[in-house]
Amino acid sequence: MRAASARAVLRRADWCMADTVLFELLHTEMVAELWAPDPDPGPGGQKTSLSVLESMGFRVGQALGERLPQETLGFREELEVLKFLCKDLWVAVFHKQMDSLRTNHQGTYVLQDNSFPLLVPMASGRQYVEEAPKFLAFTCGLLCGALGTLGFQSLVTASVTALPACKFQVVIRKP
User: Fold this and answer.
1) Where are the beta strands (DSSP E) in the chain?
2) Greatest CA span in the chain, whole angstroms?
3) pTM attached to this predicted model
4) Which residues contact 97 (CB under 8 A, 6 or more apart)?
């Protein structure tokens, strides 16, 4: 009986690893496609690419929010919602919790991930820091979409000072 349950756990771990690898590959290809050299770049250029990635993330965040159990949709406090995102949602998407959550208690929150999975493959150090924002746009949209589904309008920005760590600043808009 133990061997069967151990095999089931290993099978789930294999699926989890496969999901992670597929998500990372899909994300990398989305970024590469949107940043591919365009012989006829339209107005906006890379800003448009960031908007497209953020919009994709927003829709995924909305979809994840719609699939949440009904009891999670009853959050009333901003801090409860942000704690939920840092723990439960982050684990569901990246298979790890956010490393820290800070607030000024005035609607601004800073979420820090010291080993952000979408930046880990790049490298550590400062040489690729300029390339990092395009790998964070999707996740900014994802957070914004999930917050919107939970009833909080927000503005999410990201920053990187040293890879693979990043910070997401969430500003909750007051109605």
Assistant:
1) 100-103, 108-113, 154-159, 166-172
2) 63
3) 0.80
4) 86, 87, 90, 91
